[in-house]
Structure formats: structure tokens, C-alpha cells
Amino acid sequence: MAKDYYKILGLSKSASQDEIKSAYHKLAHKHHPDKAGGEEAKFKEINEAYSVLSDPDKRKRYDSFGAAFSSGNARGFNSASWNFEDFPFTANGNAADFGDFGDIFEEFFGFGQPKKKTTTGRGKDIVVDAEISLEEAYSGINKHLILNKYAPCERCNGKGMEPGSSLSTCKTCQGRGGLERVEQTFFGTFTRLTNCPNCHGRGEVPEKVCTTCRGEGRIKRSIKIDVQIPAGVDDGETLKVQGSGETGKYGLQSGDLFLNIHVKPHALFQRKGNDLWIKAEISFPQAVFGAKIDVPMINGEIKLNVPSGTGGGKVFRISGRGMPYGYGRSRNNAAAKGDAYVVISIKIPHSISKKTQKLLEELEGEL
Ligand SMILES: [Zn+2]
Ligand SMILES: [Zn+2]
């Protein structure tokens, strides 16, 4: 893919940086895909050429290696991934040319798609911490949270108008909710859709504004929220409850609620991924003769068959008795479970009776 970047910009090899810049500006202006007669492919090509020639290092390499450089080293531009980083403006920072930088980038990457209405006024996100036990993490739990937050106004049901009055079509935007704003930018004239400031994007305004919320449709109050924490949730996970953050102004989008999960350490079990590890002690005779011992699992006890001659540190895997995963999260609601691991240790008595001491001494002679 040998491209002649000079030819693309209509320049000679000796072009100065100023000439490169001015040629680029002229061509980018002409071929911007949002303009009538604009052409996306051509526009990309121009940007590719400019990103190389405007950078003295890249230009030098391009001049020396030509095609090899263009097919190998020009990051991003040779593949479909035409990414932000490679965009020449970010590197050169000519923000002054473009007015609102962020908006311009949206225009670039949207390539002619109608712009969504702005979300100014969206309710804030709320982040809370929730501490649960391992048992609760195992079974899943419904947590009731009391949050003091912006919630829909009860007097007007969030509509912003006095009960009994009605909504009428906004005169400013004729009910469309958005206003078209014509903007002059470097690349030409664009029409952008913004929220109507009179009706805040709703297209309707209350004839009489609600006296409780002054028309915002929301007030700060204590509100109870039920959050279903799914079975298998792990310490450090964050759950997102969409739309349960603060209610937006004037019926605009609500924020989200984020729940940081903390699972308390457990006295018996140690969690490793979806598996649970537990220690079980046996006596020396049990280790020698073998035994059936009771071992607690997170959901009830099991009888574990310890074979004769089991030493300390031996691990038994109890299949399917670990933490659930996938439950409530996968489409088929199937719960898979990790395993439990029982680690055996041998009880060493700290103080022993005279009789035990004698027996042990005899035993030592035997072994
Ligand atoms: Zn309006
Ligand atoms: Zn109200």
C-alpha cells in the first residue's frame, strides 16, 4: 500500500510545514464527510498523509523508506482501526482552531450521524458500600438500602406540574424538545441539536408549576431501594443498578446506583475464586485407623471418610460444595458451583495426662 502523501496533499517533496498545514486545512475542509460532496475515504487519506508529513520524525522516515514506512510503521492508518490516538489534531493540539474541542471530536467520529440530545441534567450516580457475610454471598440476598437522594416528586409524580393542571406544548421549540443550533466550525457549518432550555427537552411545559419541586419533578428524600445481590458475588465486585441513582431533573435520565460489595472474612472458610477451603483436625489414632468425621460445608455438614494412614496436610476435594457462579447472571439461570477443599491436620495435645504419657512412651518403642 504505497501511498504518495505529497501527492495526496498536492505538494512537492520540498513543501514547508506551513505549506503542508495549509494544504491539509484546505483539503480536509473540502472533503469532510459531513459536508455536501464530502468523502470519508478521501478525508481519511488526507488525515493519514497529514499525520505523517506534519511530524518531522515521521516525515523523515517516510522520505527515507517511503512505501516500507507507509505499510509498516504508520500506526493505525493502514488497518481498519483508525483510532483516536493517531488523529493528527490530538498530537498537534490545535484546539484553538476548533472551538469546543470535545464537540468537534464527536462530530468527526460521528460522521454525519444525527447527534443525540445532550444529557445535561441527568441524575447523579450513587456509590454505596454493602458488607455481607460469606453465607449471604453464597445464597444471594435482597438488601434494603435507605438512601437520601433525589427521587421523583410525590406531589406531581415527577411530572413537574401542579395536580389538576396540565402540560402544554412548549412554544420555544414547538414541542420538538430540541433546538437546532447552527455552528460555524473550521470544517464548515453544522447543525446541532440541543435541548430546548424552556422545556428541558420534554417538548411540553407545565401550565402551573408544582409547588413542591418547583417543576423539577424531583425532590431530595429518603427512599428505600431493594437490591438483589446475586448468589456467588465476590468481595470487591461492584454491582450496577441501572436507573437507581438520583432522579434526573425535568424527567431527564436518572443516574445509576453502584454497590461495592465487601464480603466479611469467615471464621471457617477461605474463598479462593469459586472454591472454599476449610481445615479439619483429626486425632493421631484417627489418622492411623481412619475415621468418619463431620466437616462443616457452607450449606450444611458432610461426613468425610478419612482413610487409615492419612497424614497432616492431606487435601480432600468435595466436588460442587464451593461458591455458586453464573447464577442469576446467565440467561439460563444455571448455577454452577466451585468445589470445597478440606485440609487435614493432626491434633497435637498441649498437655497430657500421666496415663497418656505412659501410653505414648510405650507406642514410641513400638514404632
Ligand atoms: Zn421546548
Ligand atoms: Zn413536584
Describe this structure in words.
It is a single chain. With 367 residues, the chain is an alpha+beta fold. It folds into three domains: 5-110, DnaJ domain (Helix Hairpins, Orthogonal Bundle), CATH 1.10.287.110; 122-153 and 218-264, Urease metallochaperone UreE, N-terminal domain (HSP40/DNAj peptide-binding domain, Sandwich), CATH 2.60.260; 270-366, Sandwich (HSP40/DNAj peptide-binding domain). Helix content is 24%, strand content 28%. The protein is built from ten helices and 17 strands. It has helices spanning 5-8, 17-31, 40-53, 56-65, 67-72, 88-92, 101-110, 134-139, 284-289, 354-366, and strands at 126-132, 141-152, 167-169, 178-185, 188-195, 204-206, 218-229, 238-241, 257-263, 270-272, 275-282, 291-297, 300-306, 315-318, 324-325, 336-337, 340-346. The strands form seven sheets. Strands 10-11-17-14 form a four-stranded mixed beta sheet. Strands 1-9-8 form a three-stranded mixed beta sheet. The chain has a two-stranded antiparallel ribbon with strand order 2-7. A hairpin with a 2-residue loop joins strand 10 and strand 11 (275-282). Helix 2 (17-31) runs antiparallel to helix 3. The relative contact order is 0.10. Bound molecules: zinc ion (2 copies). One zinc ion binds at residues 170, 172-173, 196, 198-199, 203. Residues 4-66 form the J domain. CXXCXGXG motif repeats lie at residues 153-160, 170-177, 196-203, 210-217.
